[in-house]
Design brief:
9-stranded antiparallel β-sheet; mainly beta; homodimer; 2 domains; DNA-binding; Pr_cel_nuc_antig (chains A, B); DNA-binding (chains A, B); Proliferating Cell Nuclear Antigen; DNA binding (chains A, B); 268 residues
Amino acid sequence: MFEAKLAQSSLLKKVLDALREIVEDANLDCSSDGIKCQAMDSSHVALVSFDLSSDGFEPYRCDRNITLGLKLATMTRVLKCAGNDDSITLRSQDNTDTLTVLFESPNQDKTSQFEVKLMDIDTEHLGIPESEYSAVVQLPSGEFQRICRDLSQFGDSLVIACTKDGVEFSGSGEIGSAKISLRQHSMVDKEDEQVTVELNQPVTLTFSTRYLVSFSKATPLSSSVTLSLKAETPLVVEYRISDVGHLRYYLAPKIGDDEETEHIDDCS
Amino acid sequence: MFEAKLAQSSLLKKVLDALREIVEDANLDCSSDGIKCQAMDSSHVALVSFDLSSDGFEPYRCDRNITLGLKLATMTRVLKCAGNDDSITLRSQDNTDTLTVLFESPNQDKTSQFEVKLMDIDTEHLGIPESEYSAVVQLPSGEFQRICRDLSQFGDSLVIACTKDGVEFSGSGEIGSAKISLRQHSMVDKEDEQVTVELNQPVTLTFSTRYLVSFSKATPLSSSVTLSLKAETPLVVEYRISDVGHLRYYLAPKIGDDEETEHIDDCS
DNA sequence: ATACCCATCC
DNA sequence: GGATGGGTAT
């Protein structure tokens, strides 16, 4: 028996929104620790994973490890049925291929219950090596989203260059070229509006703009985002989910003259 | 070398929005006086021009006269990348076909720089004769926009009739007819909400509603607008841009039974 | 790529 | 309540 109740169904909605553009189906791996998920986009260029600790749920019960294969389009439909402040409970009996989703309104006056067919999803679980990154940039997530969106007007590739002074995003295409610079400044009142660059070594890498735009759909999850860069290593884009866990994207840099994006599993 | 910095990039954005529906490409004529622009719509029915005095820029530098041929769709994309309170700097070296656009955030922590290819645009510079108008109407720009939009539901033609008492806008079409009257009243608290009619002679003229609706896209530039009317003379719709200059549209009245809009250069 | 509708912010 | 921006649908 698996049962997990989250006070804010909206949180799960945001997580789903953050995945939807990247993957169609995903396995939730549920254990006594909590819920983990790892999924690759269909072209094997990007990987997304998230971790929700059991501490974020109340109650949380997972008698034995269970994998819930979800069709995200279905889950999106279901989650649209949640009220803004509804709680959400996920429940699955062992040896069934069904997930029960239950929404409860704050005042308990309305409950909505859904039964969703589970899928059997082929999965390749990649171990992601811990790296010492050349640069770790933290910036407001809204700023990152804005930059990705703005630069998407200027070509398919987005260059991220980190120096001790800050970080520079650039792109160029038919209509012209664009370069956006953020200066490091940690002296700001609000921690969430900081831009910080932890630099071991200056680094400049090129990525597919389209994927970065998709990644930034996770913006509602956190007010800030961190980018971890290292040559010939997938970029990590991480959104912390307060008190519960995190959501991370991985994207291999484009390499060489043709600036093709490498498959992420070519870079292991 | 040409360089002009405007504290409010939003001002230039509004100017572009005011042109976009009328013309696709436009030449900015830059001199030590400032930046002027004059462009005709593709069917030669309407003309738009604006004047931005060098006083509105700081710094402003224009070593020698230079014409910047802009594709407005490109400039629109670039200006979308500006933050709300960013300054904007336009810069062009002599003998290049490139315009540099630089946005700087108020706190200087973010800068965005764009390189845009300039165009070579055929231009016919019309001299616009000064006229003694039969009537000059001033009204709140939002009111004018609302009236144009409302009357656009009632036919392609919009009649403007000025008398000593005020101004009357009317239209009629298949679904019925509409007449909107504004009484002159200069006794209002706020000058911007006044409706005034300076009348030399009562005048009633008919215009293409569609163009007037387009003109009223300039509403964000000024809280009031003036309409200058005279028989057989292009209507002038003027928005003052405080401290910097103005933007004007010209539109020949429809004449005769068929109520065809005359080409503006037929009326010189 | 453009237009319409919905949601969020002022 | 209105306006602006973003997302979705055509």
